[in-house]
Amino acid sequence: MYGAKSRVILEGNLFQPSRDLRLGRRFTFQQDNDPKHTAKPTLKGFKWKHLNVLSWPSQSPDFNPIENLWYDLKIAVYQRNSSNLKELEQFCLEEWAKIPVATCAKLLETYLKRLVAEATIELIFAAFATTASASTSLIMQLLRHPAVLEKLREELRTRGILHNGCMCEGELGLDTIVSLKYLDCVIKEVLRLFTPVSGGYRTALQTFELDGVQIPKGWSVMYSIRDTHDTSAVFKDVDAFDPDRFSEERCEDKEGRFHYLPFGGGIRSCLGKQLATLFLRILAIELASTSRFELATRNFPRVVTVPVVHPVDGLKVKFYGLDSNQNEISSDLLADIKTEELLGAEV
Ligand code: HEM
């Protein structure tokens, strides 16, 4: 298949259906970055149509040893110039047999390295991008909802963690952190309304029916976390940022197993769930107790959802440290340090 053919396929399977569904530009196209899908005319066409294409690591034979062997085989067979199909098959068999065992052994030997590289890239996305997204959303929601921030500070005061605005050293153990109920509600609500990961894929192990639609065995099925949170009937006033929906009295998430699933569901759900929530709780405690912060731009930035929820061009925030009497730490005291660097941060 060549670039031109792939463009015909795109017209029939992407552009026409997006027109039929009246999607306009409200969708993001994800592809595997195979060279024929990234040919210059194709990319130009994407640009011309203002298509939002997800940037994605290119398809790499590094992660798939057999791809290296296919490549060697292709070159060897091509050089023999077959004149008919029978001959082509014969050359393939001969050249395949000629590949030295040492070549395969080397590919296997270095496989572990490639696997580590792949796992590292995956973990950077799974752990870093997600937690960064949730942290940014947390800060943005605390900025948007000062009453929530104040209620959080009140909880910290009531629990003796915050005195006159200062966090008292030595009192913040794991037990205390996980027992802060309102804090838990705030984190849960951030992850409901600003779900960092939009969904996941599963393979159907057997044919089944869902709402009258048959899903055949072997199909890849995408489940959408964001749509689930958006459409779940258990959440009242679904668009409102309302941490109290998770309070003991209301417990909106307790009605079913799969209405609230920011960390996915089933055996392939998030491995870092506890670590991520602990991190977010500590961040919220730190922000509520040791700093005052404000938006450094006139308006809140626009938020996009791909590849994770994040503000376009970042969220610019000014942080002011508070001393033990809840006074701002004077910038004179910080004269030796570049104040702007210290207090202005881009999240
Ligand atoms: C707020 C932060 C996070 C969110 C919202 C999140 C969300 C998710 C979701 C939805 C999945 C399941 C995807 C699926 O169904 O296929 C997942 C999987 C995973 N997450 Fe997280 N995650 C977060 C943080 C972390 C952290 C900090 C780590 C590691 C330290 C981590 C490691 C993983 C791993 C290894 C998987 C794959 C599990 C498997 O396939 O068995 N995540 N995460």
TrEMBL record:
Membrane topology: Peripheral membrane protein
Catalytic reaction equation(s): all-trans-retinoate + reduced [NADPH--hemoprotein reductase] + O2 = all-trans-4-hydroxyretinoate + oxidized [NADPH--hemoprotein reductase] + H2O + H(+); all-trans-retinoate + reduced [NADPH--hemoprotein reductase] + O2 = all-trans-18-hydroxyretinoate + oxidized [NADPH--hemoprotein reductase] + H2O + H(+)
InterPro entries found in the cross-reference section: Cyt_P450, Cyt_P450_CS, Cyt_P450_E_grp-IV, Cyt_P450_sf, RNaseH_sf, Tc1-like_DDE_dom
Keywords associated with the record: Endoplasmic reticulum, Heme, Iron, Lipid metabolism, Membrane, Metal-binding, Microsome, Monooxygenase, Oxidoreductase
Domain of life: Eukaryota
Binding annotation for heme: C270
Known cofactor(s): heme
GO BP annotation list: retinoic acid catabolic process; sterol metabolic process
Entry GO CC: endoplasmic reticulum membrane
Residue ranges annotated for the Tc1-like transposase DDE domain, each copy included: 35-88
Molecular functions per Gene Ontology: heme binding; iron ion binding; monooxygenase activity; nucleic acid binding; oxidoreductase activity, acting on paired donors, with incorporation or reduction of molecular oxygen
Primary location: endoplasmic reticulum
Compartments (UniProt record): Endoplasmic reticulum membrane; Microsome membrane
Similarity comment text for this entry: Belongs to the cytochrome P450 family.
Protein name in the entry: Cytochrome P450 26B1
Biological source species: Hucho hucho (huchen)
